[in-house]
Amino acid sequence: MNQFEQLATRFVDQAANSVGNSGLATAALEAHLQTLTEQMAHLKRIAAPAERRADLQLQIARTLVNLERGAEAWPLGRAAFDTFIDGDQFELAADVCDVLFQAEQPQSLAALGQGIWLAVTCPIDPELTIELLSHVIDDTPDDADGAAVAATTALFIADVRAQGRQREDLMFFATQLLGNVARRHSGVDSQAQLDAWMERLELKEPEKFLIRLRNVVDVLVQDDWWFEREALQERLPF
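Structure (tokenized):
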């Protein structure tokens, strides 16, 4: 067997292994989905509280999204969202928004916007907040300012909310995010250029870039809000 034939054979073997591993992962997700579905049927039979069912709806929706069945995931996640909002479980509601965004349905951008609003407004896990903001960065054109605002907010959240090792990790990650955004936005490749870029885009003062983030959220959500923001803010414990 010559060198080309050996390379071709190795490539075919690797491709087969990849397909096989993918098939195993899908089978595992399908089995997990079946288990979750049976648990949901049980909760319905015993008339379990809405909060318990919402937790399971979130798990099922996440599994369906991982199986690329976003249309099936949507109504489950949407129902769970309402339950979590009614119960002031804002972190879980924001987590649902992340799943609904990844479901890639017509209202997924609205879900992302509302998840970001909740994550920045409410005192939830900063890692989830940064995850939601990173979707804006990934889905925004290189020359758009929205990614810069999202990356700056991510760094701000990591700085003021996280503690200990989590803070170190998130600060490093968010700093990398901001640097990548600056590079693709304006070709920034030095600290001096970064400082000037942030000054020009008004990214150094929270009272300015958080207002701009609100504008980004409004663009994502449009008029499709699923809750009253003012009423929710009045229920927050601060």
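The mean pLDDT is 91. The chain is about 80% helix and 0% strand.
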